[in-house]
Write a structure and sequence with these properties.
eight-stranded antiparallel β-barrel, 14% helix, mainly beta, 333 residues, 2 domains
């Protein structure tokens, strides 16, 4: 291999000598293999005799020693001629060739730091999103039926949340999304005359017996939330592509924990009386747990995401209401 390279280098020098008198170009590029090359550059043509008599085998021995060493990248280095031959037949110009600049870099190799920068590993991007969906709760392993006074209607039991989201790249297709936001639970009861009553024993759901034209009845709660969702994203975008950014590509999936703290809650009963719509509101905690925690699932493709939130603790304090675990699902915009 070394003799082949030496022969190629010698031919390149001879070729350089042949064209020196005809062309003004002072650079010759000799390709080697699929990704390597030798570049000869001459600024002063008086160096021609030095090039003819240079010990190229010694130069390539030095190159091979460096490439076979521990360093994967050789930076710009200025050094004096390493030919220390004491052979009296050695050309004087060769022994005193002056100073040379050597630049070596292993082909097609990136350091770990370069690779991290290229992929954006460790970088964090900020965005906002909106969760819009519906919510219900599980009584054991099923949704409450119409026989239960606290059964709700999926349509009208809206779940709304606004979030400030930070997305950090951990690996090439692996991200961590951590967010802080505010959400609203709205549980619209199937029976429009349902009233939420609180006493020392707990919370009760009873039917209003007045002769009124009832419109709706609901219980709502507001929470401040924080979440952390590890996410695998096979798309090329560093963040979820938006509708206005085009369709994007790739499939996303993630699951992680969230926690929330209740800051407000109320019940509302709406009915019509003498052609006018009346509203009765009661602001109370209704023995709702101040803390909620659970798991969030995110599934997305292109610019569309689906979310599912499942509370792992009960909506009401233990012994003060039915053992219901809230669940929400919908789209993220």
């Amino acid at each position: 291999m070394r003799l082949n390279i030496f022969a190629i280098a010698a031919l390149a020098v001879c070729h350089f000598d042949g064209i020196a008198q005809e062309k003004s170009a002072d650079t010759v590029v000799v390709p080697l293999g699929s990704s390597s090359k030798i570049i000869f550059t001459m600024e002063d043509r008086s160096d021609m005799d030095v090039l003819r008599n240079y010990d190229y085998q010694l130069l390539f021995n030095d190159i091979f020693n460096r490439l076979e060493g521990d360093s994967s990248e050789l930076t710009l280095e200025e050094r004096t001629n390493t030919n220390t031959s004491t052979d009296p037949n050695t050309n004087t110009d060769q022994r005193e060739a002056g100073r040379e600049i050597l630049v070596l870099k292993e082909a097609n190799s990136d350091t770990d730091e370069d690779e991290k920068k290229k992929r954006g590993i460790g970088r964090t991007w900020h965005t906002y999103n909106l969760d819009l969906g519906t919510n219900n709760y599980l009584d054991g392993d099923q949704f409450p039926t119409g026989n239960e006074p606290y059964a709700v209607r999926p349509w009208g039991s809206w779940y709304i949340a606004g979030n400030s989201v930070q997305r950090t790249r951990i690996g090439r297709n692996f991200f961590a999304e951590w967010s802080l936001g505010i959400s609203w639970y709205n549980f619209k009861f199937q029976e429009d005359n349902t009233v939420v009553v609180k006493d020392e024993q707990g919370v009760h759901f009873v039917a209003d017996q007045r002769e009124l034209d009832y419109v709706k009845s609901k219980l709502s709660a507001t929470f401040i939330n924080a979440s952390l969702v590890p996410l695998v994203d096979f798309g090329e975008h560093r963040h979820k592509p938006r509708v206005w950014e085009g369709h994007g590509d790739g499939f996303r999936f993630g699951i992680g924990p969230y926690v929330g703290y209740r800051i407000a809650s109320k019940s509302k009963l709406v009915y019509e009386l003498d052609g006018d719509k009346e509203k009765e509101k009661d602001r109370d905690n209704f023995y709702l747990n101040n803390l909620r925690y659970g798991l969030r699932i995110q599934i997305g493709v292109r610019s569309t995401d689906i979310f599912i939130n499942y509370d792992m603790n009960s909506l009401f304090a233990e012994g003060k209401g039915p053992d219901l675990k809230a669940i929400s699902f919908g789209l993220t915009f």
